Amino acid sequence: MADGARSLRGGGGGGSSGSPASSPVLGGRGRNAVGGSSPPGHAFRRVTLTKPTFCHYCTDFIWGLAGYQCEVCNFMSHEKCLKNVKIPCSCIAPSLVRVPVAHCFGPPGHYKKKFCTVCRKSLESPAFRCEVCELHVHTDCILFACSDCRQCHQDGHLDHDTYHHHWREGNLSSSARCEFCKKTCGSSEVLSGMRCEWCGILAHAACYVIVTPECTFGRLRNMILPPNCVQLFSRNFSKLHCFRISENLQTESDEDDDVDGSTQGSTKDIQISTDSSKQILKIFDGNDAVKRNQFRLISVPRIAKNEEVVEAALRAYYINDDQQEYELQTFTQQVLLSDDVINRNDAAEDSNLGSVFRESVPEAWIIRAKPKDEEVIRIYPAWLKVGMAYVSLRVNKDSIVQTVIKEVLPLLGRQTECFQNFKLVEVLMGSKQVQRMVLDNQELILNRLKDIRKTSIRQMNQTRFYIVENSKSIVQVNLFVGGLPPQLSPEEYTNILKEELAIKTNVVSVSHVYQAQGAVVLQISCFSEAERIYMLVKDTVVNDKPLNAVVLPTVMASKIPQNCCPLLVFVNPKSGGLKGRDLLYSFRKLLNPHQVFELTNGGPLPGFHTFSKVPSFRVLVCGGDGTVGWVLGALEEIRHKLVCSEPSVAILPLGTGNDLGRVLRWGAGYSGEDPYSILVSVDEADDVLMDRWTILLDAEEPAEGAENGIAEPEPPKIVQMNNYCGLGIDAELSLDFHHAREEEPGKFNSRFHNKGVYVKVGLQKISHTRNLHKDIKLQVDQHEVELPSIEGLIFINIPSWGSGADLWGSESDNRFEKPRIDDGLLEVVGVTGVVHMGQVQGGFRSGIRIAQGSYFRVTLLKPIPVQVDGEPWIQAPGQIIISAAGPKVHMLKKSKQKQKKTGNLKEMKVDNISVQIALLKQYNCKEKNTKHRRDYFCKGIPVHWKTEKTNCYILEQMSATLKLKHSLRRTHFVSKHTVHQKMMLNHWGEKGPENLGSFQIPQSGRLVQVVSWLKSILMDKQVTSALN
């Protein structure tokens, strides 16, 4: 291509008065149109507003016809706000990334009232969203997004134990309030406001810079798995694999990239071509863009200088370098209708240009960096735990990597160490993947920079060089493989893996075996082997059963704080009308994604294995009663391998009936509540015990449908029961519903529809008669029980059945004890038919109380429908034995206390509040012609502290404890909007109050919880002497 290309170099001539090149602020080279210091990286230019526009700094409406817009990232601002802008431009954002972490983009979707982080425009077309953080980008902006995702684990690169706030700009609700000035910081009109993606603290762009950098993970700190406690080596795995996100939701990235370049280009072409005074150019940024056909469109005036075109091309690729260092070359593989970007006012030329605009065939150019004899590069020390410091080093055409290492070490204070103990690593900070490559010691640095720029100048802007100490890296990838035959020995599992996957035993070993579940955990010491096995498992079938593989992190239990009890979250995405997908995203964002597991991807076993060494944790199950039973069953099987053998389990009901969720006060079903408030409720929930029961099914005759009656009887089967077990009409309705769902599973995606199907199958059985009492025999605690005339027999463990109905009833009965979920007893109830069941559902009747006991034997004389916790089948004649299943399970019951809404002033959401304590000696209050002496604590005391009814009593106790002459009163806590505050300001005048210093509240809470904190402050001699 070089032979057929000609150069168009950016000259030094000035532009015309009406062109962008004539603007004194073009390119953001440290120049500002309004004087003063330039905002970070922005290229502001005065523009005429043609539609309602809001300032991105203060979010207020820009009145008038003029505003200031950054020509690179589209940041809009008032003239008065320019000097206060702290948000950096997208062109310098890659250089501000402290630890490069790639994003985990899901499939493109439509996101209402969201804004692109790169170009700051509204997401009107399909866009991408990171599944781990709150990043949203257009499809054609994804390549320019910074690799600044949350660091959720340690991977051997830039690991540290101190975590800072991870700020993300914008996409806040319009009601979001700054935690410091208490004013609105969110907006639905522009990208504004800052939010820490770990602790959730909200702040203005002007307020967040004063926040203490260390983050303590906020209100949910006790249930978040700290990132420094998680280790995952994932060099060859995508972020989707690392966080166990289903791949069926992800489209092919290469195909998307190709479509983005051409589709977006043609759309913009149509929009811009309506202006006949503009010329459209295709710009490629290097050989890689040409190969992938990824280009950017720019619009320049028909009369345009060279530097204008170069400047516009750099802006299109978010490059803030000097345009004198770049040049444009024609792309000779395209047939161009014009020979030069510089158009002349000749009639012949105009006719050719007209055809270009009419046919929408833009010219194609490649922007290249001019060769340099020397250059200044930045070297980042990889061993720094805090900060983003770097050293600048000038290199020439003779500089090699070894020379750079020798020159850098003295600048970093390591001059006494041998240069051979260090290496130079090139890091490409892509938005989808962070790639690292160790440079050879004899490689020429300038040649390496030249190759990168030739490939892509965008990649050059996203490339860093780190100096790293040589160390022997230990690679350990944990791969969970499920779907294997159960009850085999470790040697047999190893032989199967050798045959099916051709594993290399010198780098692969079986570390854990779960025989009952038919699963193993492989420990792999080679990245390429781990990736090969992972990809091969997807297409492997053993005994007609497909295998599945999950990449698991390692939790370092020794690093978990003592007061931390991480929450292990299981979500069934198929439950709750597909609301599980949204919950997966919300919980990954609020917690560490490594503690959130999707049950359709390997079941609950990978999650329990990951938390097997955690000394204390809780479990949240998001799904229906069947999902809860699935998780509890897996917990029972793996309990002996867990350090925390009895974790408490909470429920977020997503199913149809949700009877267990109702009993434990988690509600009748999830209806879109705030996930944050759900996690707070889990943290405040009470620990209760619940019985679990084992049901032994022993068929004495062949199952129905056996050929000629010569088939063997079904082997004994054991199932676990949590809620209830039904025989007869109850199980028959469940079986019909189950068959209907199997025929058309796509229709069963809402709770309302599911209940409608139940009603339909019930009406079809309304005339059905079954003398169940003649077909079964019941024995309770070794005593025969005579059954009344019934059509259904139900064993209930919880006081809720069939979507909340009280089948046992509330009437007192001297024959039976009052049912409880932990009394070690089951209640036996009978129903006479569908009509009776409907009356129970409506609350008009209760079931027929038959017995109460702890051991049951049911003899089936003929095949009868049976259902356990909603799972139905036809049971052959034989014995059914129900008995207690080992230890009781620990469940979490939602607290009776009314939960506080998110954002309520009565609940502080910040970890540390800096409170400025000032003392007002004495002033005259003319109110009611009386004088009052008051001592005030001003600015920073939360508003709700001065409105609680308990304040008077608490303040009196504090005054007595501190032996103050003047009792503290509620009026001592003054907000900045009260009349008293204004009077105090008038009294202070220019001197202001006597400042007694700033203090940090150690933890959030109500006033009662910070009395000890205030006491420690007021015990200071300076304060007490002033008060007394």
CATH class of the domain at 694-701 and 716-886: Mainly Beta
CATH architecture term of the domain at 694-701 and 716-886: Sandwich
What radius of gyration results from the CA coordinates? Answer: 35 Å
Based on CA inertia axes, which overall geometry fits?
A: elongated
Distance between the termini: 86 Å
Uncertain regions: pLDDT < 50 for 5+ in a row?
Answer: 1-37, 249-273, 333-361, 705-709, 899-955, 961-1013, 1015-1028
Count the beta strands: 48
Number of DSSP helices? 23
- Please give the order of strands in the largest beta sheet: 33-32-43-40-35-36
According to CATH, the fold-level topology of the domain at 694-701 and 716-886 is Tumour Suppressor Smad4
For this entry, what is the oligomeric state of its chains? single chain
How big a fraction of the residues is strand?
Answer: 15-25%
Structure description:
This protein is an alpha+beta fold and 1028 residues long. Among the domains are: 44-82, 2-Layer Sandwich (Wheat Germ Agglutinin (Isolectin 2), domain 1), CATH 3.30.60.20; 374-410 and 424-469, Phosphatidylinositol 3-kinase Catalytic Subunit, Chain A, domain 1 (Ubiquitin-like (UB roll), Roll); 477-552, RRM (RNA recognition motif) domain (Alpha-Beta Plaits, 2-Layer Sandwich); 557-684, Rossmann fold; 694-701 and 716-886, Sandwich (Tumour Suppressor Smad4). 22% of the residues lie in helices and 23% in strands. It contains 23 helices and 48 strands. The strands form 14 sheets. A six-stranded antiparallel β-sheet has the order 33-32-43-40-35-36. Strand 17 (422-429) and strand 18 (434-438) form a beta hairpin. The longest helix has 20 residues, at 253-272. The radius of gyration is 35 Å and the shape is elongated. 40% of the residues are buried. The model is unreliable at 1-37, 249-273, 333-361, 705-709, 899-955, 961-1013 and 1015-1028 (pLDDT under 50).
